[in-house]
């Protein structure tokens, strides 16, 4: 059992109600001076050290004091707030943002909120105290719900105090901020049309969960494309599932137990779900694409390395990440800028025809 000194060294802020700058420096593994310069927006701090300090301050819920808040905004930090950092698509955008940020002597710090409005609002409020140049929010679940309205209020307050807000997601264009959106519906329509044209008429869509705006848009796009290219609406079945590899596996395993009944293709809401679909088919001895085709959406790096390689809709994550940094580093325009990216159909070995 550690002695008192050892325990205190392991968790220096445990016994105190107020977290100090010294605690943040210790947590980040940097000097007190480095932590002070990083939180003050000093350009002399190495990007890696600045990132460590901001992430440590967020973990410890450190609040910058009033005098620091009154300093002129000068940080080149860009704070990314995401629902789930484990999502390959978000990871691809983060990687692109970090690469682009280095080219302009900025750096990116990342926080995850699990999509919870209360945690989103608290994270925005805490990060705003460190005066980043911009906040990039990947969640688009901001509605009239009181909890989500608080998120909007925090973002508006951040911009009033001189910061920049950039939203990334399919439902972001109706909000009063610069936004980067994906045309999920139009992109998914490309897949639906391709499948119907290549003889895939009996379709099961693994559609994720209803509360995800992008999932609903993609499902609508799949159906529109299938119908436009000649599929019969009675041959299209929509099945909800968790948006995860396990969700795709479990839903597909259940469908296999029930009997696929001549299904031509299993259409996943994204590549992560599609990976679970392929695993369930492999476990049940079902040949893909010999017995059933499988498709995804996103084109995460693993999609190219699966067996068979996954037919999917490729989103331009690198371009999206670069554009987010470009928006963050420029002066705020008089009117919000909205840009929309569309995916491209990428046919590989998981579909027949």
TrEMBL record:
<dbReference type="InterPro" id="IPR000843">
    <property type="entry name" value="HTH_LacI"/>
</dbReference>
<keyword id="KW-0804">Transcription</keyword>
<protein>
    <submittedName>
        <fullName>LacI family DNA-binding transcriptional regulator</fullName>
    </submittedName>
</protein>
<dbReference type="InterPro" id="IPR010982">
    <property type="entry name" value="Lambda_DNA-bd_dom_sf"/>
</dbReference>
<dbReference type="Pfam" id="PF00356">
    <property type="entry name" value="LacI"/>
</dbReference>
<dbReference type="InterPro" id="IPR028082">
    <property type="entry name" value="Peripla_BP_I"/>
</dbReference>
<dbReference type="Pfam" id="PF13377">
    <property type="entry name" value="Peripla_BP_3"/>
</dbReference>
<dbReference type="InterPro" id="IPR046335">
    <property type="entry name" value="LacI/GalR-like_sensor"/>
</dbReference>
<keyword id="KW-0238">DNA-binding</keyword>
<feature type="domain" description="HTH lacI-type">
    <location>
        <begin position="19"/>
        <end position="73"/>
    </location>
</feature>
<dbReference type="GO" id="GO:0003677">
    <property type="term" value="F:DNA binding"/>
</dbReference>
<keyword id="KW-0805">Transcription regulation</keyword>
